[in-house]
Structure formats: structure tokens, C-alpha cells
Automatic annotation (TrEMBL):
Protein name: Uncharacterized protein
Species this chain originates from: marine metagenome
Length: 27
């Protein structure tokens, strides 16, 4: 169970990083 949560957090952080990069590219 803990591993599943960790995977979700890691993937969520990766998504946030990608979104931030996209926003910087737009500006």
C-alpha cells in the first residue's frame, strides 16, 4: 500500500514538473 502511494506521488511530481516546463516555454 505504501509503495502504491509513493508511486502516485512520484508520478504526480513528474506531471507537475512537465507542466511547469510547458508554462515556461509558453512565456
Amino acid at each position: 500500500e505504501g509503495l502504491e502511494v509513493s508511486k502516485l506521488i512520484v508520478s504526480a511530481k513528474a506531471d507537475l514538473e512537465r507542466l511547469r516546463e510547458q508554462v515556461q516555454n509558453v512565456e
